[in-house]
Structure formats: C-alpha cells, structure tokens
C-alpha cells in the first residue's frame, strides 16, 4: 500500500463518518431518554421501594467501575471498536428482554447487573470512535453528539405521554424498542480507520494494561476524574427521583417530559457551537463553569421553585451535564494519545458514572426518603467540591500529554 493510499484509508470520510456516528448517538439516547426519567417509575410500578430503586440504579454503575475500563482497553487492543460496539449492543438488548421475566427485588437487581455488563461500556467506546474522527478528519464532536440530545428530547417527551396513556408498564417496552434501534445502527457504523485497520509489522499496537495504571498514577488525571465525577454525581437525585418528586408535586407526566426536554435543548445549543466554545472558554474552564452551575441549579431545585422558574433552572443542564461532558472528552483527546483514548474514556466512565455516580445513586434512596426535595442541597455540595478541584486542575494543567512516550 502506498503512502498516499495509507493516508486516505486512515482518514474517516467526511460525510459518511459523521452521519453514521450521529445516527448511532441518536439511537443510544433513545434508550437514555427513556431510562433516565422513567425507568425508576417502572421500578416503582413493579413494587420496589425507594431504597431498592436506589440500589438497582446504583448496581450497574458499580459494575461500570471494573468492567468498563477493561472493555474499553480490549476495544483499543482489538483495533475494531465497531465490532465491540455491535457485541455490546446485542448483549444490552437481550439483557433488557430478561426484565420481562423478573419478579421482585433480587431478580430485578440481577438482571440490572447483566444489562450493565454490556450497556455501560457502549458510551466510552463510542466517544473514542467519535474523537478519532475529530482528530483525523476535523469533524465537530458536538454536532455529532447533539443528535443524541435531540433523540433524548423525543424519547423523554413521548415517554411521558406513553406513561399517561398506558401506565408504568409501557416503559420497558419502549426501552426494548430503542435498544433494537441501537443494534441496527451499530451495524451501520463506519469501518475502523487508521490504527484499527492498518496494523503492520512496523506499526504494532502495543496497548498495555499498564497504560491504565500509568494514567491513574498521574495526579492531574486524578484531579480530572474527581472534578468531572463529582459534577456528574451531583445529578444523582435528579436521575433517580426527579420524575417521582415532580409527580409528588402534582406535575403532569407530559409536563415532566417537557422539563426533561428543556435541559437537553440547552445541551443541544451548547453542542451546536461546541468547537467555538471549547476554543474560546478552554477545557478546564468549562469544567469550572459546569461545577458552578451545579451549585446554583441544585440549590435552586431544593427550594421547590414555581413551575415557570423550574423551567429556567432546568436549562442549566446545558452546563451541569453538557459543558462537563464536552470538556471531559476534549481533555482526554488533548491529554492522552489517540490509540489509548478508549482506555482513558473507560476510566472516565468508570470514575464519573461508576464510582462517583454509583455512590451518589446508592445513597440517593435513603437521602430522598428522609429529606425529600431537600436532598438536592446535598447535590449542591457535590457541585461545590467539584468546583474546588476543577480550579486546581485549571491552575496546574497546561495542555501537556499525560502519557508521554517512554
């Protein structure tokens, strides 16, 4: 193969890559847009207590802590992240079908763990694929990712209507349908480019388990994991009991779906201008902004604002989640070599949505049971801790590679 042919093979095609990744993000967030607001409602419909709901929601996040970094590293080693995503998508679909056979807490808990073994690794591997396109062909990550936000809105809105029409039992049926869309779109993903396809004797893939260990010994990477993990963990009460809490306040399911949608619309606006935002604000400053917004958002939510103000507070989701996540994927892209990006994404998912979010979700049941809406004040404290660590990261990281060659 000539050098020219090699260069062309390594570069993801402009239109095909972006369109297929956008489609896959869209399918993924059909599932997320149903799971986040309404899966706790389905669990309540099946008779689980608030404490049990918290445990079921936390268990997959605990699985992510160990399993996701391993899968992400294997995906890097395999050189074909697409094939890994296809296997994970099929496993998640069959896992969701098992929920129809469950009865009681322990069976539901066991199936939740099975689903988590597959589903929790999908996003970090997808992010690694997307950022490969950003670095190799100049694609705009935010403009691919915003299609996921759009489908999240559609899923949360129509999921709320389905809840009104057919009750809590409809949630699982909708999630299974969405997971089938993930499987279909996984088989449309672009073929692996560059390192994934052109493995030669002169370019061996030498990705080691020690790479993950080296990253975890980097103080700046640990600061990154802690600051982003805490700001994401501050969403725990919202994710676990947001819909249930709003229902207790007499807010209709259709309005609740709209409230979820408002937050994601703000996220879409941010993603639409993501390249400009990252360049103007800076990666670490975005984490600081997200953490500050978390303090404001969750303190305001704890005060049970009137509905008109609640819509405005929900718009801060564009910062508390959107800015934090956007900053995280760009930090990894800047601080970690491309061939190890999947491993770093796996560690980020393991910490942010595993250790930190898992711990927060696990305690969300007792917190909400004892404090009700006042539990959001605890989430504001997590935001404040994230802000302090993000400021330290901003002061000390100067854009250097955290895994230089040895």
Summarize the structure in words:
By secondary structure, the chain is mainly α. It has helices at residues 3-10, 14-45, 50-78, 81-98, 105-119, 122-137, 141-166, 170-186, 209-216, 219-233, 236-248, 253-272, 274-281, 283-302, 307-314, 317-335, 341-371, 376-396. Helix 16 (317-335) runs antiparallel to helix 17 (341-371). The radius of gyration is 20 Å and the shape is globular. The model is unreliable at 1-10 and 194-207 (pLDDT under 50).
Q: So what's the overall shape?
A: globular
Binned strand content: under 5%
Most strands sheet: none
Series of secondary-structure elements, N-terminal to C-terminal:
HHHHHHHHHHHHHHHHHH
Backbone structural class: mainly alpha
Low-pLDDT residue intervals, each spanning 5 or more residues: 1-10, 194-207
The share of residues in helices is over 70%
Query: Count of DSSP helices?
Result: 18
Q: Mean pLDDT across all residues, rounded? A: 82
Characterize this entry briefly.
The protein is 80% helix and 0% strand. It is mainly alpha-helical.
Give keywords.
globular; disordered N terminus; 406 residues; single chain; mainly alpha
């Amino acid at each position: 193969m000539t050098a020219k042919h090699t260069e062309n093979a390594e570069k993801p095609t402009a239109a095909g890559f972006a369109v297929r990744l956008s489609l896959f993000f869209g399918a993924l967030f059909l599932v997320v847009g149903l799971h986040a607001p309404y899966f706790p409602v389905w669990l309540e419909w099946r008779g689980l207590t608030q404490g049990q709901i918290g445990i079921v929601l936390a268990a997959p996040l605990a699985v992510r802590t160990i399993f996701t970094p391993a899968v992400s590293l294997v995906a890097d080693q395999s050189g074909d992240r697409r094939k890994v995503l296809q296997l994970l998508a099929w496993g998640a679909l069959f896992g969701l079908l098992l929920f129809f056979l469950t009865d009681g807490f322990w069976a539901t808990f066991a199936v939740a763990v099975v689903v988590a073994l597959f589903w929790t690794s999908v996003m970090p591997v997808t992010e690694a694929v997307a950022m490969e396109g950003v670095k190799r062909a100049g694609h705009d990550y935010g403009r691919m990712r915003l299609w996921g936000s759009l489908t999240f809105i559609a899923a949360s809105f129509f999921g709320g209507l389905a809840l009104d029409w057919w009750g809590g039992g409809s949630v699982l049926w909708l999630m299974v349908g969405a997971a089938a869309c993930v499987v279909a779109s996984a088989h449309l993903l672009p073929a692996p480019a560059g390192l994934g396809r052109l493995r030669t004797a002169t370019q061996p893939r030498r990705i080691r388990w020690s790479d993950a260990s080296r990253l975890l010994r980097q103080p700046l990477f640990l600061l990154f994991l802690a600051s982003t993990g805490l700001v994401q963990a501050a969403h725990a009460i919202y994710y676990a009991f947001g819909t249930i809490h709003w229902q207790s306040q007499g807010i209709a399911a259709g309005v609740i779906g709209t409230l979820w949608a408002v937050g994601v619309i703000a996220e879409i606006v941010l993603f639409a201008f993501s390249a400009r935002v990252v360049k103007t604000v800076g990666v670490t400053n975005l984490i600081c902004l997200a953490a500050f917004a978390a303090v404001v958002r969750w303190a305001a939510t704890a005060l049970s604002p009137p509905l008109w103000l609640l819509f405005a507070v929900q718009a801060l989701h564009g910062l508390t989640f959107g800015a934090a996540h956007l900053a995280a994927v760009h930090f990894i892209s800047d601080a970690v070599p491309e061939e190890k990006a999947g491993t770093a994404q796996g560690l980020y998912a393991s910490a942010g949505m595993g250790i930190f979010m898992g711990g927060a979700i696990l305690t969300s049941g007792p917190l909400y049971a004892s404090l009700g809406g006042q539990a959001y004040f605890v989430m504001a404290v997590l935001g404040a801790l994230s802000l302090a660590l993000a400021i330290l990261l901003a002061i000390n990281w100067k854009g250097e590679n955290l895994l230089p060659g040895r």
